[in-house]
Design goal:
This protein has one helix and 29 strands. The longest helix has 17 residues, at 3-19. The strands form seven sheets. Strands 11, 12, 15, 16, 17 and 18 form a six-stranded antiparallel β-sheet that branches. The two termini are 31 Å apart. With 361 residues, the chain is mainly beta. Keywords: Signal. Residues 1-22 form the signal peptide.
């Protein structure tokens, strides 16, 4: 069989497995030059959790969890997950999971970032009822060596939110967009998306809210800092089905210039995972797929910041949303947990994705 025929066959097999809602795959799926490797699962299913990378560890904070882990075959099962304060990490080198001291409060849609060996949890959503959550100003720093949480300056009043796009530049953590509350009770859904942009300086323990707002409100939006630019892509505006494909950029060396509009994502979606790889922004999955299984996307699309172009890549094994992606020191992209269906349906998968080497050229 020719090299090209092998690639085509692998792609068709992957697509077939997805379309037939097969059980979660184990091992490795390869569609050259991309591959997905399934890793040890999260000890408990999770979605709408915060994810960040600290050296060789992928840290998961809070989220929605249950005693039942969804698969692509069980997306119609009843769901009643609860917000948790659970903190766990996956060690890339030892391929093992570790429990850590719980977060100071149960939180979903938390805003999280790692700076100089510490983890910062900034706001997020709280609420005892499964479908009604409100944003909090609470902010903390986690020292993984001491396994301790410490209170830091809270988000300024009126800027509290969760589900923001996150980016780090030097000592500063940038947050773009987000939502102030989410109420999915009854026949209507109230979701307060915002266009706010702010930053937290980890060295001075201070907030800056004097940054240009996004051109439009967004929540469940992807983002990352590449070079000196904060890129924001996709997201939604006041509802799971009101998905957007806009891509914007803010020059962090000249923030007064405001946000620039860039080439739009080929597939509009919210609740997507995003991470920087070299000079590229990779995006995975997302919510708001009116025609897809479970209402979620399996799409993988990558933005080239040098060319201002998007490229659609082979799809994932199934549609996912409500998680995020991080890029390890080994150049691989890691995704842990997420929902297999619109709304809540937490799962415990962990995968490593091999990106295209062109992003490092």
């Amino acid at each position: 069989m020719s090299h090209l025929s092998t690639i085509v066959l692998l792609f068709l097999l992957t697509a077939l497995l997805y379309c037939t809602n097969a059980e979660p795959l184990r091992g490795r799926i390869s569609v050259e030059p991309y591959s997905v490797t399934f890793l040890p699962e999260i000890p408990a299913p999770r979605q709408e959790h915060a994810i960040t990378l600290l050296q060789d560890r992928i840290l998961l904070v809070g989220g929605l969890s249950s005693n039942y882990s969804y698969t692509p075959d069980t997306i119609t099962a009843p769901s009643a997950p609860v917000t948790v304060d659970t903190v766990q990490s996956y060690n890339i080198k030892t391929r093992s999971w570790t429990d850590h001291k719980p977060a100071p409060y149960p939180v979903n849609h938390g805003n999280i970032a790692a700076v100089k060996g510490r983890i910062y949890l900034l706001g997020g959503l709280m609420g005892g009822n499964f479908s009604r959550w409100g944003a909090v100003t609470n902010s903390y720093v986690y020292d993984i060596k001491k396994d301790t949480w410490k209170t830091i300056a809270p988000m300024p009043g009126g800027t509290e939110r969760g589900a923001s796009a996150m980016g780090v530049s030097g000592s500063k953590i940038y947050l773009a967009g987000g939502m102030r509350f989410l109420d999915m009770g009854g026949e209507t859904s109230a979701q307060a998306s915002v266009a706010l942009v702010s930053s937290y300086d980890t060295e001075t323990n201070t907030w800056n809210t004097d940054l240009p707002s996004l051109p439009e409100s967004r929540d469940h939006v992807g983002g990352a800092v590449i070079g000196n630019t904060f890129y924001v892509a996709g997201g939604r505006d006041r509802g799971q089905h009101n998905v957007r494909g806009d891509t914007w950029a803010l020059d962090l060396k000249n923030t007064t210039s405001g946000w620039r509009e860039l080439a739009s994502m080929p597939t509009a979606r919210g609740g997507l995972s995003a991470t920087a790889v070299g000079h590229c922004l990779y995006t995975f999955g997302g919510e708001g797929n009116a025609e897809g299984v479970g209402g979620v996307f399996a799409n993988v699309e990558v933005y080239d910041t040098k060319q201002n172009t998007w490229e659609a890549l082979p799809a994932l094994w199934a549609g996912i949303h409500g998680t995020n992606a991080v890029t390890g020191g080994d150049g691989k992209i890691y995704i842990a947990g997420g929902g297999y269906r619109l709304g809540a349906g937490p799962s415990n998968f962990t995968v490593a994705y091999q990106p295209h080497p062109k992003c490092f050229a």
